[in-house]
Every structure is written in structure tokens, then in C-alpha cells.
Amino acid sequence: MGIEVVRDLRGRLPWYGDDWREGLNSGVRIVAPSFYIFFASAIPALAFGEQIDHDTDGAMNGVHVLTATALCGIIQAIFGGQPLLIVGVAEPIILVYTFMFEFLDDRNKKDQFVAWAAWVNVWAALFIFVLAMAGACKFIDKFTRFSGELFGMLIALLFLQQAIKGLTEEFKRDDEVEEGGSRKLLSGGDALANTYPWRLVNGIWGVVLAIGLLLTSLLVHGARSWRYGKGWTRSLLADYGVPLMVVVWSGISYSISGAPNGVPSRLSIPNTWDVKDTWKVVQDMGDVQGWLIGAAAIPGFIITALFYFDHNVSSQLAQQKEFALKKPSAYNYDFLLLAFMTLMCGLLGIPPVNGVLPQAPMHTKSLATLKKQLKKRDARRELIRNSQAHSNDLNKGSLTKSSTGSFKHMSTGAAQSPVSPSVGLARMSAGHVREGSVGGGIPKVSSATSLSDAAKMKQSASHQSLVSLSNGESGLRQDFVTLEVKEQRLSGLLQAVLVAVCLALTPVIQRIPKSVLWGYFAYMAFESLPGSEFWERILLLFTDPKKRYQLLETTHTPYLETVPFHVISKFTIFQAGFMLFVYAITWAGVAGVAFPLAIMALIPFRQHVMPKLFSSEHLRELDMAEYEEAPPVDHREVLREMKKKGVILEADEEEERRQALEREVVGDMMPQVKHHLSRSELERRKKRMEIPDSGQQPTGLRHRKKEASDPSSPVSGGAEGDENRV
């Protein structure tokens, strides 16, 4: 007992001082990641605060959620084993607390909810303590992509459900109270806002605000791929556009003139200093009946199961091997620290926290930078040195130098195809190098034992080498980029302190419409879908068989070529069915509190049941740990393969011709047929542009760049240029 915790402490303690030094040495560069994660933590905290306030009749509210997020975030940053881990209140714990409140409400004991929740957290802290001391975190690797993506899809579904539920509430009438002889709403609005016409206005206006926030947030989140604007403006919008949209649509909500107070309905978060009762929950714990104290062990165990999965998976994704972190992990110690934080939250009357997704991996990603790019000469020297060191591993290929000075990989059977830099840092750094035929044949995923080993640079303390192959004019060129992650505690501490500052800004936060946060719930649901192979396979099920070949013409996941479609369908249906089963449990009334146990059942189901239903090769392809990507395949060869398999019949060639015709005709009002220009014809045109007419200067973009670099040109200001101007 406790040996794994001691091992984690011995591994992390020597690095504790370096954690702070590395953050301080970063200077002002640490500010941007801190604000980025602050917004990613604060806005969900406000949304969950509004949700728990509604579901518990105000027993807990946004002040409690912000307090838990800030306080535990500071503790994790200072005392945590893995400082990159971000903790906060998550959607599943809000759902568990909702079921707990309904359990007491059915027994007319909802006034004891906060005190009973404290006992639940005492039990949960005890269970978490036992698991941490027993070293149970070593089994977290049993959760594969199958389990992780199923859990992520369940959370997305719950987010979307809450968004729809919140928007429907905008149309309903609020409860009223008598206050000084006049009728007021419990939410603080005027009684006029509770009449049917204004409730209809409130609901419709709320839907407009929610959809507006959803669409604009999705738009600005992808700003980095825009062609317009400067690079820094696109990055700024991509990182901070979503909180900016919350401010913008909150301002737009005031555009209705003559609306009574309460239209649109706004956040019901109280002023921080008005919340006093819950901080004294320790005094009320003795009033809870004995049978309720014993019954609290059931939700306490359920919270333990939930935290075991959610907290450790969040920590695992924050320090996945693609980031090549230099400092050791501390899963068991962090889980032990979570036990103390859970106990503290219960005794303070605030909801417990755990590692949250996607904030934890977002934090690590925001701290990753491209350190430097080596010169070609240095890269060649590094290649030769490593190829000699790893000569035993290169029996399947060799590195030869071409006449242009670049290096090519010679393998048996196929030439090395260029790998697009868009494959991404995480995928390339994992060593996944693809091979395919030059003529656009069906590509295959290599074992990455030759080129990746030879091109791997000597890794320093916190760096990882990345090989990026690009196809230039002189053939294959290899550029080496070093990925560095700042492993420090300062950014996590700063973002938690900023969340604490929000507690002093509750009068400003109260101006945010509820519908804007419901729109943010929908945004979190839709934003969690890209990158999920589970979601991609669901879309594949609804894809026309005659159109599936188009997926291979772009970068795609390898299982589209290696696994038969009926196996993919069977695997996806099993995964979707299990997810719907867990989701159905959440609708089972008070019994829905047991949904985390169904998530834990994924471990034996994946380890013992699915191998009997699928072959090990198919499971390896469909449930792979890394996200792999295969290069596109030539259009004609894809059609040939699809016809060979009988997916596309010969009679469908007429439809293919019609589609080709639609691609060749541009415009609707004034249709024009494309004229495909050959490269040789384009080169001839460029040469004609380089021979200007008398008294006329060339205006081509490439010619202007050439003039700027030519000291003899008039633009560059050389001596001959002066004579020409004279």
C-alpha cells in the first residue's frame, strides 16, 4: 500500500523547482496560454453553475462552481504531481448531483441536500484514497479509444440535451413572489416578463441568441484556416474568438427596446458575498439521519468510479507520448491529491472537481512550440550520425544521396511518397510514415522501422524531433523541426487565479443571457465531434455506397482500406448501442445515478467480449491508440477497385460522367466550361511575360519578387537602376 504513490513522489520532487523556473523563464510568453485556458475553464464553469442552480433549486449555483474550479486549480498547480493537468467541475458530476437532489426531493428532505452531499464526498474521498494507495491507476491503460470516444460522444450528447432543455425553459413562465406589494420573478425580473407574449418573445429571442453564438463560435474557431487577414489576427480569433462571441451576443441581447426586466432571462448567479449558508455545512452534517449517511456510500462509490476514469484519462491525454514530455508522470499521487480535494469540497459545500476534458490536453497543446528548424547541412550530418548508430535497424532500406543533395529512402517494392506536413505534429512525431506507389496506388501503412528510425534526431531533455517530408522542385527535402513543451506550474496557477477573480465580477456576469450559455453548450457538443473516429464511422454508415470511394481521394483513416465495410459497420453499431444504453440509464430517474458504473463496465466488455466478436487484426485497426492518417489515392484506381468489389457497377459510369460534367462546368447564371492548362503552356506564358514591351515594366508577382532581390534592378536601387531611371 502506497508504494506507487512514493514512487511518483520520488520521480517528481527533483523536478519541482524546475517547474517554477521554467515558467518564470518563459516571461510574458506564459500569459497567452494562461488566458487561453482561463477562458476554456471559466465559461464552462458558468454554464455548469447555471445548470446546477436550476437542477438543485438554487441549493448550489455558479459561485460554488467557480469557487471549486479556482480553489482546486490553485491546489493542483502548486501541489499536483502533473502541473499540466487542469481540474474543474465537469458535466457528469452535475448530472450525479442532480440525481442526488431528486432522491432527497422525493423524500421531502431537499433542505439537507448540501449536508448530505458533504457525506457523499466523504465516502468518495475514502474510496479514492484506498484506490490511490493501492496503485489502481496502473490499470487505466485498459481504457482504449473505444471507451474514450464512447465517453466523449456521451458527454457531447448530454451537452446537446442540456442546450435543448435550457432553450425550451426560455418559453416557460417563471415562479413569482410577493415583494413589497408587487409581484416579482424569482429570477429578479418584472412580473410583466411572465406574461405569455413576453415569454414567447423571450423564447424566440433566446433561440436566436443561442444559434447566433453557436454558428459564430464554430466560424471563428476555424479562423486559422482562413485565407483572409493577417496570421496573428487569425490566431487571435481562433484562440479567443469564442469568449469574444459570448461578449458580442450578450451585447446584442440588449437590442430589444421596451422589453421588461427579465427579457431575455439572464444568469441567476448571486453576488459572491451573498452566499453564506453553504460554507457552514460542517455544522449541518450532524443533522443528517444515520441511514442517509450510510446510503451516501452508494453515490460516493459512483463518483469514485467516475473520477477514476475521467480524472486519469484527462491526465493521460495531457501527457500523451506525442508531446515527448521530459518529466515523469504521477498518476497515483495525483489521484491521492484528488481524494483530499474531494473531501475539502464536500466540507465546504461546493461540488467536487476532477481532471477535465478537453481543457487538460488543450493546456499542453497551448504550451507546445516549434523551437527551431535545422539547416539542411546540419540535418544531413544528423542523419548520417543516426544512420550509423542505428545501422542494425536499417536492414530493410538505405539512405542515398541524390544528385540534388537531398536524401531519398530506397525500399523494396515501392518508392517513398511525400508526406504532407498537414499530417500533424502528433501523428508524425509518433513515427507513422506512410508508403505508397508513385502512380497513386492503394497506399499501405509501413511499420516505420526504417526511415523514422534513421531520421530520428537525438532527443534532448524536453524536445522531440519531427521529420516532415515535402515535395520540392529538387525532389524530396527533409526538414527537422523540434517540438518543445513548457512543463511548468505557472500557467495553471495563473488561470486558476483568473477564475477566482471572476468571483468578484458576478455583477458583470449576471448580464450574460442564459440562452447564450445554452448556445455554448451546443457549441461544446459540436466541437467535440471532429477528430473522433467514432463520429466518422457513424457518418460512414449513412454514406451512399456509390460515394464511399470519394473518402479515399483525400487523407483518410487506414481502416477504410484495411477492414471490410461490414466489420466497420458491426463495430460501430456495437459502440453506438453501448453508448445509447448508457445514455438511457441517465433517463431512469434516480437510478440514473449509476451511469458511471456502465462506463466502468467498458473495461471487461472491451477486454473479454469484443475479442470474441472481432478478429485481433480488425480490433487493432479499429481501436488503435494513435490517430493515423493515410494519403489520398488516385481517383481512377479507386474506381477500379470499387468496381472490382462490386460496389460500383458498370452501369453507374453514366452517373460518373454526369458528375464529371458538373465539376467541369463553372457557374449557374453564366455557365462556362473549364479549360485545363498544361504546365508547359503556363511556362511559355511566364516566359512571354518576362520579355516586356518597350516602355512597359512587367507586373507579374514572381517578377516583382525577382526585381526586389536583384541589386541591378531599378526597384532595388542599384547603380544600373539609377542609370535606367535617368
From TrEMBL:
Membrane topology: Multi-pass membrane protein
Chain ranges of the Bicarbonate transporter-like transmembrane domain: 5-174, 204-375, 459-624
Coiled-coil segments on the chain, per record: none
Gene3D superfamilies: Helical hairpin bin
Biological processes, Gene Ontology terms: monoatomic anion transport; monoatomic ion homeostasis
Keyword Membrane: yes
Gene Ontology cellular component annotations, sorted alphabetically: plasma membrane
Keywords of the record: Membrane, Transmembrane, Transmembrane helix
Residue ranges of the region described as Disordered: 385-421, 666-726
GO molecular function per UniProt: solute:inorganic anion antiporter activity
Subcellular localization, as worded in the UniProt entry: Membrane
InterPro entries linked: HCO3_transpt-like_TM_dom, HCO3_transpt_euk
Highest taxon above the source species: Eukaryota
Transmembrane feature ranges: 30-49, 61-79, 84-101, 113-134, 146-164, 204-224, 288-309, 330-350, 580-603
Ranges annotated as biased composition (Polar residues): 385-406
Family, similarity comment: Belongs to the anion exchanger (TC 2.A.31.3) family.
Protein's name according to its UniProt entry: Bicarbonate transporter-like transmembrane domain-containing protein
Organism: Ostreobium quekettii
